[in-house]
Each structure stands twice: as structure tokens, then as C-alpha cells.
Write a structure and sequence with these properties.
Number of domains: 2
CATH superfamily of the largest domain: Aminoglycoside phosphotransferase (APH), C-terminal lobe
Radius of gyration: 20 Å
CATH class of the largest domain: Alpha Beta
Shape: globular
Distance between the termini: 32 Å
Largest sheet: 5 strands, antiparallel
């Protein structure tokens, strides 16, 4: 989350006049993430999140995200619900950009997830997949292997500016991923960006999952791989196998992984690390200097790639 679009009081009041939410009482930007402009909105009827879609968000993808959130809410999974305006539509236009108001979820995101939180996150991710098993819409993952190759080709001259010699390591990773990427694993709707700042906990339990704007149709185990990268590495770059074991066992209390999925975990985790290395590489250079945002360091994921190169099996992740 971030703030790229400035919204003044008059613009906000005009926008809210399309809803039955009452007048704004408080409104402030949320200075996290790098993708869309997000605001905490409090009106006469409660608290909400206002999102203005920027950068990578495509207008044709937005109905997929809205309907996924609605589907999860119907299944009693703790996801935000898009708020409809008086015309019955949730998607609006604000300052010439797509925008939506969603319900506010209680809880706090962990800054340094505990093993207990990793276990609950894993179980919650399996319930997330189960709730979406009958979700009828599909959206291809537009940040998967073919895109990584194109992204690297466009930025490869910048990689060695981060660390000398890194270019050749990344090129070798991409070649290995192209050779080893799975072709037939259980698939469905996935979150694809379930970082700790996209999950809330309340009284020790998972109380919410937010930010669905990379959600897509892909291998279910790829969602696990994203979470292993995002939840189980420490700040100095080392993998915490206790957290990995907690996340994987939590997931498998709700849904058992197939043998093929278990075998694919190292490759999928390597691929997930590549995805975030490359998108962070682009954001590191391209984020506007006047944006209320902190671009994330791509080297965090270069370090994770080093771990994944050495991993031989799911047991290296605590499985």
C-alpha cells in the first residue's frame, strides 16, 4: 500500500456523495507498500479503506478482485467486503482512476511473525484455498515465469549495480526455473502476495487478509511458497526452519499437500523469491521521489534466492 494520488476534502466529499456512508470524519493516507494509493477513511457510519488503483492494476482485472472478496465473505473467511454505492456498484472512478471502498478489518499485522502466527497463517491459507475452490472466475498470473524473463531482460544492466556478480547468479536462477518449473499441480484462486502486512491477528488468531490486487489463478502450492519467503526469513536473511515447519504443518492440518506439491516446493519458493526480487528491482528505480512510499530493497530477495539455490527438498523448509 502507498499514496500516489492526493485527494482533497472537496474531492472526497463529492466521491462520498455517491454512497450512504455519511460524511467523512477522518481521512489519512497509508504509507506502506508500493502499488496503489490507500487511505484510512472514517465516516458517520464506521471505518473503511479507500483504494485508488495505480501502476500495475488493470481495469479489466478489478472485477476478479472484487468478486473474490465477496466470495470469501460469503464463505465466512475474514476478507474485506467491497462497499457498494447507491447504484449497486462497488467500483468507482476517483480523479480519473478506478477506486473502491472496502470494509475495515480489526487486528494488527505482525512486524516479526512468531512461529504461532506462522502456524495460524498456514492454516488460514488452506482455508482460503478451500473457500475459493468453487470460485468461478479465473485470472492468469501475469507475474509468473514468462514475465520474469522479460523483466530481467529489460533490467539486467542494473543488477550488477546492486552487487557485482549478481547478474550471472540471477541469469542462472532463471535458466533453472525455466527448466524445472512444474507443469501439473493442483491449481485455483490464490492470493499471491500474502505478506505479514496483508494479514491481521486479533487475540492470537488470524482475523483478516487484505490486499487482493495480485490475486490470480495458479498453483496452490505457489501461494505457500510466497508465504515461506515472506514469513519465515529473519531480518538478517537466514531462513527460520521452525517458522517454516509451523507454516507448512498449519497448512496441512487443513489440506494435505500431494507428493508432487511437496517435491515442487523448493522450485516454487525459488520462483516466488525471483518474482519479488524483480518487481522490487523495478520499484527501487521507478518509485516517484515525491510519493509517500518506501521502496523495498531487492537485495532482501537476492539473499533468499541464495538459500533456495541450496535447498534440496521440502525438508529444508521444515516439511
Amino acid at each position: 500500500m502507498a499514496v500516489y494520488t492526493d485527494i482533497d476534502d472537496e474531492t472526497l466529499a463529492t466521491f462520498l456523495s455517491e454512497y450512504d456512508l455519511g460524511a467523512a470524519r477522518a481521512f489519512k493516507g497509508i504509507a506502506e507498500g508500493v502499488e496503489n494509493s490507500n487511505f484510512l477513511l472514517e465516516t458517520e457510519t464506521g471505518r473503511y479503506i479507500l483504494t485508488v488503483f495505480e501502476k500495475r492494476a488493470k481495469a479489466e482485472d478489478l472485477p476478479f478482485f472484487m468478486n473474490m472478496m465477496r466470495h470469501l465473505a460469503i464463505k465466512d473467511f475474514p476478507a474485506p467486503l467491497p462497499v457498494e454505492a447507491r447504484d449497486g456498484e462497488a467500483l468507482r472512478t476517483l480523479k480519473g482512476k478506478p477506486a473502491v471502498i472496502i470494509s475495515f478489518l480489526q487486528g494488527m499485522s505482525p512486524r516479526s511473525p512468531s512461529s504461532s502466527q506462522c502456524r495460524r497463517l498456514g492454516a488460514g491459507l488452506a482455508r482460503f484455498h478451500a473457500a475459493l475452490a468453487d470460485f468461478g472466475m479465473q485470472r492468469p498470473n501475469d507475474l509468473s515465469l514468462p514475465t520474469w524473463l522479460d523483466m530481467f531482460a529489460a533490467r539486467e544492466d542494473q543488477v550488477d549495480q546492486l552487487v557485482p556478480g549478481l547478474h550471472d547468479l540471477i541469469a542462472a536462477d532463471l535458466a533453472a526455473l525455466k527448466e524445472d518449473w512444474p507443469k501439473d499441480l493442483p491449481s485455483g484462486a490464490i492470493h499471491a502476495d500474502l505478506f505479514p502486512d496483508n494479514a491481521f491477528f486479533l487475540d492470537g488468531e488470524l482475523s483478516g487478509v487484505i490486499d487482493f490486487y495480485f490475486a490470480c489463478t495458479d498453483f496452490l502450492a505457489y501461494d505457500i511458497a510466497v508465504c515461506l519467503n515472506a514469513w519465515c526469513f529473519e531480518t538478517r536473511g537466514e531462513f527460520n526452519i521452525t517458522k517454516g515447519q509451523a507454516l507448512l504443518s498449519g497448512y496441512q492440518t487443513e489440506r494435505r499437500l500431494s507428493p508432487d506439491e511437496c517435491e515442487a516446493i523448493p522450485t516454487l519458493a525459488r520462483g516466488a523469491a525471483m518474482r519479488f526480487f524483480l518487481t522490487r528491482l523495478i520499484d527501487w528505480a521507478d518509485t516517484p521521489k515525491d510519493a509517500l512510499v518506501r521502496p523495498k530493497n531487492p537485495l532482501d530477495y537476492a539473499e533468499r534466492l541464495g538459500f533456495h539455490r541450496r535447498a534440496k527438498g521440502i525438508e529444508d523448509y521444515g516439511g
